[in-house]
UniProtKB/TrEMBL annotation, chain A:
Domain Peptidase S26 positions: 10-102, 107-150
Signal peptide: 1-25
Protein name per UniProt: Mitochondrial inner membrane protease subunit 2
Keywords assigned: Hydrolase, Membrane, Mitochondrion, Mitochondrion inner membrane, Protease, Signal, Transmembrane, Transmembrane helix
Name of one Pfam family that matches: Peptidase_S26
CDD domains: S26_SPase_I
InterPro entries: IMP2, LexA/Signal_pep-like_sf, Pept_S26A_signal_pept_1, Peptidase_S26
Top-rank taxon, per record: Eukaryota
Family: Belongs to the peptidase S26 family. IMP2 subfamily.
Lineage summary: Eukaryota, Viridiplantae, Streptophyta, Embryophyta, Tracheophyta
Main location: mitochondrion
One biological process term in Gene Ontology: signal peptide processing
Organism: Citrus sinensis (Sweet orange)
GO molecular function, one term: serine-type endopeptidase activity
Localization annotation: Mitochondrion inner membrane
Automatic annotation (TrEMBL), chain B:
Native source species: Citrus sinensis (Sweet orange)
Major place of residence: mitochondrion
Known function: Catalyzes the removal of transit peptides required for the targeting of proteins from the mitochondrial matrix, across the inner membrane, into the inter-membrane space.
GO CC list: mitochondrial inner membrane
Keywords: Hydrolase, Membrane, Mitochondrion, Mitochondrion inner membrane
Gene Ontology molecular function: serine-type endopeptidase activity
Record-given protein name: Peptidase S26 domain-containing protein
Source species, domain of life: Eukaryota
One Pfam family of this chain: Peptidase_S26
Length: 170, 159
């Protein structure tokens, strides 16, 4: 009888903490692993496939920016891929609505439409970003990366970096 | 001294209960279902101009069971702070033919790219939808409307 009560209260506690954890990670902040080298050297500066996912950077992603969808140039964001909503990507915002972005590869100048943003990885040679799939709607953004939390020797604040030669306000 | 201990314990219990209810409320409103107020002319005659209370469910779009004909809530690609209500006309791979009633009545055909959907309002004359801003990534879909609660004379399931 006592074991039954204990099991029941344990289940209730697990359920409560699960709910609280889910709510906090949806509304406030959560921890995500970064895979791939498209953001080298900011994240995953060494491609060490021997260690696998243990050596991947784990970052803190905050969701307060989603109240008004207000971002700044150089913010690192996590967003759903426009071609596959189940995949999430981590890139840096280069252009906000109204900016003109120059793409040297096609000698084109693109204006970022209202409600969209232009994202690029810090490692242009191995990054699938807005240079391939164009500007993405801001509604796809799931959070903003503020700190690296793992591995311990790389714990630091993620800085905003501006690409002065890539964007110009309209 | 013991009174403060008792008071602190009481405060902790109340806070935990409040947190429990708040989290249950959040999880229900984001993962199960919730009532929403919709208004505007773009879904006439299905939805009223002056406002309906609709029940939205958040399960179908997570398991990928959305198809043409569903009324969905989508975060607008033009303004991420607004959520619009439209009907899915085509999913990825479909050929969609549409016309813009005030732009010379010319017909256009487009193939919906991978990972996107084509949404249109039922009232083609007063709706800003995929005919203006193009196909919308599936990740912008927030929920599906399945039941109307108010006004009472049109109480019942939708589409």
């Amino acid at each position: 009888m006592a074991a039954h009560n204990f099991l029941w209260s344990l289940t209730k506690n697990c359920f409560t903490f699960g709910l609280i954890g889910l709510t906090v990670s949806d509304r406030y902040a959560s921890i995500v692993p970064v895979r791939g080298s498209s953001m080298s050297p900011t994240f995953n500066p060494t491609t060490d496939s021997f260690m696998g996912s243990l050596s991947d950077d784990h970052v803190l992603m905050e969701k307060f920016c989603l109240q008004k969808y207000k971002f700044s140039h150089g913010d690192v964001i996590v967003f759903c891929s426009p071609s596959n909503h189940k995949e999430k990507h981590v890139k840096r915002i280069i252009g906000l609505p109204g900016d003109w972005i120059g793409t040297p590869m096609t000698n084109d100048v693109v204006k970022v439409p209202n409600g969209h943003c232009w994202v690029e990885g810090d490692n242009p040679s191995s990054s699938l970003d807005s240079r391939s799939f164009g500007p993405i709607p801001l509604g796809l953004v799931k959070g903003r990366v503020t700190h690296i939390l793992w591995p311990p020797q790389r714990v630091r604040h993620v800085e905003r970096k501006n690409h002065q030669k890539r964007h110009s306000p309209s | 001294m013991r009174r403060w201990g008792l008071l602190a314990k009481e405060a902790l219990t109340q806070t935990l209960t409040f947190a429990r209810f708040f989290c249950l409320f959040h999880v229900t409103n984001h993962y199960l279902w919730s009532p929403t107020l919709v208004f505007g002319p773009s879904m006439l005659p299905t939805l009223n101009l002056t406002g309906d209370v609709i029940l939205a469910e958040y399960v179908s779009h997570r398991v990928g069971r959305l198809g043409p004909g569903d009324i969905v809530f989508v975060r607008s690609p033009v303004d991420p702070n607004k959520i619009v209500t439209k009907r899915i006309v085509g999913v990825e791979g479909d050929r969609v033919t549409y016309f813009k009633p005030r732009n010379g009545d010319s017909c256009h055909t487009v193939v919906v790219p991978k990972g996107h959907v084509w949404i249109q309002g039922d009232n083609l004359y007063a709706s800003r939808d995929s005919r203006q801003f193009g196909p919308v990534p599936y990740g912008l879909i927030e929920g599906k409307a399945f039941f109307r609660v108010w006004p009472p004379n049109s109480f019942g399931s939708l589409g």
